[in-house]
Write a structure and sequence with these properties.
Length: 200
């Protein structure tokens, strides 16, 4: 097939392959080769992909879907660094699922507000005509000041009464630390490198 950006592309697919330890999980192996690069003299290494699922898409657009991973990886980085996805230290799975759903809603809110925001670059930043989600988040305070907030005004801070005496405290659940390094095997007494006991 001919790709308008890459050139002449050859796509090959093999059916019903599986990993050594998962014989009941079939998958398709796809190899993408650029035979005649378009434009400059460029060399592309073969791209190997694996498809796991019941109904694989057509062969022509299958490998192009892999190119969408760049947008997903940038979103994961933006959600972790700018939207503080992994910052809250929640103790159960349901709270983390709720927070993850809020992160997605915040991303859509920034995307839909890009036309309403006025770019406010920092002194070392250049102006942008099409604002990125990070620049929209940087200028989102102007929109919040214009539309207001349904929350009540904060109460003046005073001295906290402290924890009630009769109310029991439940300690926070602790989980074992996950160690990723491989443990060393202990040397046996009869191993060649171990010291032998001396006779009395």
């Amino acid at each position: 097939m001919d790709d308008p950006k890459l050139g002449r592309v050859k796509v090959t697919r093999w059916h019903n392959y599986h990993f050594l330890n998962s014989a009941k999980r079939p998958m398709d192996i796809v190899r993408v080769e650029v035979l005649q690069p378009k434009g400059r003299r460029r060399k592309f290494k073969p791209l190997w992909l694996a498809w796991v699922g019941e109904s694989p898409p057509p062969l022509e657009p299958l490998w192009q879907k892999y190119l969408r991973r760049f947008a997903l990886e940038h979103w994961y980085r933006f959600a972790k660094q700018r939207l503080h996805w992994t910052l809250p230290q929640v103790t159960n799975q349901s709270a983390m699922d709720t927070w993850s759903q809020l992160i997605v809603l915040m991303s859509w809110q920034l995307w839909l507000a890009r036309d309403e925001c006025i770019d406010a670059p920092l002194p070392w930043q250049s102006a942008q005509t099409k604002l990125s989600p990070g620049r929209v988040a940087q200028a989102f305070g102007v929109i919040l000041a214009a539309i207001g907030t349904p929350a009540k005004a904060p109460k003046p801070r005073g001295k906290a009464p402290g924890w009630p005496k009769d109310k029991p405290r439940t300690p926070r659940p602790r989980y074992p630390t996950v160690k990723k390094r491989a443990s060393r095997r202990k040397k046996s007494v009869n191993s060649p490198g171990s010291p032998q006991p001396s006779a009395a």
